């Protein structure tokens, strides 16, 4: 019973983080409450339906890993649950790719938290997720993806490597940026700052696939200008620029959702603010269930 309740809570928080991400507005090139960004086939209701459809996937990933050390068998079962989750996602979105990256990144974090029975330690949650991501899964389909094509063309790491390296862009950029920004800005602005810092630093295979190296560099350069001159009206202008060039930072959106997920489930935000400082390296919490 305890296992079920903890895993349900993990899945609840994972879905909530996906909803929190899509509702955050204005996001450059991405679906939000104002527009569908650089996407003809997406809408906010599609994104939200997709998020809810993944509850069972995240729950199963957590149940699989509960209080267990990762093994190749667990990694293969994790992959099977993820591929099934992708199928369910494509069924509710009429074949739009809404959350493929999130199934992977947030799914690994769900597993990592369940492995410790709901305890979230930093940076252990990321290294635990990486341990599972580094195990082989012989059943991964060999088909080419947008990510694998651009990784091959440009020789850059993508979603797989981000997880295998213990989410360096969350650890180094979005998490500390959010926690620091939240002390001087509104929560909405802090989340948007975390998204911008991800766009500036990540090699987002969605941006590369859409716009090539020029598109990726343009997106990074313009996001960087905004970090030093942050305002909601400038963000709306950035949104227009990305839409005009049909650029969408989908990988950064996924990593923002993953960041919000670990912040919310660990309770780090509440305690960080209470103590008036960022406590990234000392925080730990078993959440109530
Ligand atoms: C390891 C996998 C994640 C597969 O990775 P791969 O790179 O091979 O595959 P992609 O299909 O390209 O998916 C990767 C998605 O990860 C997000 N992402 C991109 N860059 C990064 C990064 N640097 N770090 C972290 N995450 C990143 C991104 O997801 C978001 O964008 C999606 C929209 O993408 P796309 O369809 O390309 O968008 P469009 O431009 O709109 O496409 P077109 O219409 O133009 O064609 C959206 O879903 C967001 O989530 C990347 O898309 C893992 O999935 C895997 O192992 N796959 C094998 C099958 C499997 O076993 N699955 C179960 C795993 S649990
Ligand atoms: N808000 C969003 N818009 C478009 N693609 C996304 N992938 C993940 N979140 C997204």
TrEMBL record:
<dbReference type="InterPro" id="IPR002736">
    <property type="entry name" value="CitG"/>
</dbReference>
<keyword id="KW-0328">Glycosyltransferase</keyword>
<protein>
    <recommendedName>
        <fullName>triphosphoribosyl-dephospho-CoA synthase</fullName>
        <ecNumber>2.4.2.52</ecNumber>
    </recommendedName>
</protein>
<keyword id="KW-0547">Nucleotide-binding</keyword>
<dbReference type="GO" id="GO:0046917">
    <property type="term" value="F:triphosphoribosyl-dephospho-CoA synthase activity"/>
</dbReference>
<dbReference type="Pfam" id="PF01874">
    <property type="entry name" value="CitG"/>
</dbReference>
<keyword id="KW-0067">ATP-binding</keyword>
<keyword id="KW-0808">Transferase</keyword>
<dbReference type="GO" id="GO:0016757">
    <property type="term" value="F:glycosyltransferase activity"/>
</dbReference>
